[in-house]
Amino acid sequence: MAMDGADTDQSLHGSLFGGGRGPSPTVELQQTKEQLTKQESRVRHLTAVLAEAEQDLAKLTQLNELLKEEVRRQQRSIEREAHVHNSEYLKNVIFKFITLSNGDERSRLVPVLNTILKLSPDETQKLQNVAKGSDTASRGWSGLLWNS
């Protein structure tokens, strides 16, 4: 069966412009644009959700560190309470630390005080500096009490 010129034109037109077999290119283009707009909106929403989640994570991480330090402080406090019953020994160690003038002898008492008082690393370092005499602002009994 041979096609005449009109059938060929109709077939070509149908092939180029869809010929009723699907949406026209304009409609298809519009649908694609709508899908793109929806996906861009979804990306913006998910980006905002991600940013909020990252902020929450940062806050929770900071809170976690703060709570860990508080737990360590509470543990030291509990351990310190266990040694309070031995206050005579503590009094003697503190008195000896204060009255000794030799830095080496005072330095040997720092671990003892650390054990009894459950000092933080920063407090231990400050006490070690006082014992060695390198912390000039903290020399003497008043420096131990009121210097922080």
Automatic annotation (TrEMBL):
Region feature Disordered, mapped onto this chain: 1-38
Pfam families xrefs: GRIP
InterPro entries named in the record: GRIP_dom, MT-Golgi_org_protein
Major localisation: cytoplasm
Keyword presence, Ribonucleoprotein: no
GO cellular component: Golgi apparatus
Keyword Glycoprotein assigned: no
UniProt domain GRIP: residue ranges: 80-130
Subcellular location field: Cytoplasm
Keywords noted in UniProt: Coiled coil, Cytoplasm, Phosphoprotein
Protein name: GRIP domain-containing protein
Organism of origin: Anopheles darlingi (Mosquito)
